[in-house]
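As promised in the previous annual report, we have extended the structural survey to additional targets. Below is the entry for Sporulation protein YpjB.
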Amino acid sequence: MDKNFKRLVFIVLIGIVIFLFIQPSDIIADTVAKTETKKNTEMIPFYWMILIVGGWIAITLSYVSWRKYKGEQKKRMKKRFK
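The corresponding structure token record, generated without further manual editing, is:
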């Protein structure tokens, strides 16, 4: 796989993890009520599901785009040498 493609996938996954786990309620935990904290802990399985499904969708779309790009490059090279 292309080095830049691996970096892109890594950056996207790190961004998703940061987005899901750093919430305003976590940053200012002193002002958050106990019921709010309870709601956040009940939502953790949902966040994992979103992370897994969204990650697979992002990886699949990235892979398909990369294959299309490589296919178009091969098509251009064949057209040049005909």
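The longest helix spans residues 44-80. The CA atoms of residues 21 and 29 lie 13 Å apart. These points will be discussed at the next consortium meeting with the crystallography subgroup.
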